[in-house]
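Milestone M4 deliverable, item 7.
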Amino acid sequence: MRVLDRSFFKSKYDLAAACVLEKTKIQQFQKLLRNDILRLDRYLTVRPAPPSAYEVFNNIRDLKCFLLKPSIRLDDKSTWSLKLLELVQSQQIHVAPYDLVLDYDYWTYHDILSAVLPEAEQDELPTGFSVVGHIAHLNLRDQYLPYKHTIAAVIMDKSPTIRTVINKTNDVGEENEFRTFKYELLAGKDDMDVVTKEQDCLFEFDYSKVYWNTRLGTEHHRIVEKFLPGEAVCDVMAGVGPFAVPAGKKRVFVLANDLNPESHKSLLTNIARNKVSQFVQPFQEDGREFIKSSAKLLQQIDRDVEIPSKTSRIKSPKDSSNPQTPSQIFTQPKVFSHYVMNLPASALTFLPSFIGLYANQKHLFHPHTSAEMPWIHVYCFSTKSDDNMEEGKKICSEISEQLGHVVKSGRGNGEVEMWDVRDVAPNKRMFCASFKLPEEVAFREVKE
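Output delivered:
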């Protein structure tokens, strides 16, 4: 079915219904007739009684009934249970005919697709799609393209919050360096301005001009959980702020950068919208240069943020005045505790910017101060296997080559922790490699 015919899904079933005389006994009869009552997903057990029931129960309004299983036939009492017979004979229940109609509104998205798509194409139904604000984002395989408009129409019908359905027509990043993609409108309005929520923050952006992936929400949260209030974080490829803005809400100082003008514009909006401007500063530079410039900038700027005290609404029993909690003052550190590099297609090639980043500046770190060497969280793609062992070796080999310093996969001191983020293709997986910036790399003297 390439054109959706909603009337195709209307079906009528001739059933029997047990009509209840006294409403107060509905719950009691439900238990007594539990083996006789029809159970349907998403369909209430107790229904308004059919018109014929009112001919038996005179002067009673708003009668209710239970639908009975198809095996219980109105004209054949041998199909009735003993309990049903007893209740009918005692005139507490009347069995009446009931026309059950299930139409298009009853069936689920999966039900409808199973009916409209050819059976040969149902090995892997296109049931998974991303939802970004009011947009449903499909990435349909070739065999489903002839049915794309039907699929989109069903999504619109079954998802009240969806107003736009699109299908991606090329790979992310194929169009330009900013990880945007081309798309075709399948249903609804061509409105790509969205507002979506993640980690209790609201994000506003033009989905056609920036990168956003709903499936990375858990990963964003995992990384932000590593940040402590008062720390400084360098978000090298910040996008619209999925790391930076929630971190700012945690009172983490973030220098957030993105080269894409549209991402930078949305980042400004999201910083203001979520009221984190005291902690999150936006930039628009090349990531390689930003790694260097942000480290210098952090040392040059003295920044204190005072969080005013909050007056308690609960009065002390001994004192009628409202007690106050003391103000908090957060001082921006001189070095970063974390670097986030979420550009998996090429982020590893940015690592040479860390070579000599703190040359002749050992005094900024332990044992001269309390500051430890910063963590680097760099995203990349690789192949996929059951244990990711081979992938870990490949990624560490690339990191070693970029830094000019050998690193190995593991969870020990100085080793690279590999995190399996998600599969992006049948033979392609996204990873996050986390490691502390080696002192030999950070303090290396580099000839100009």
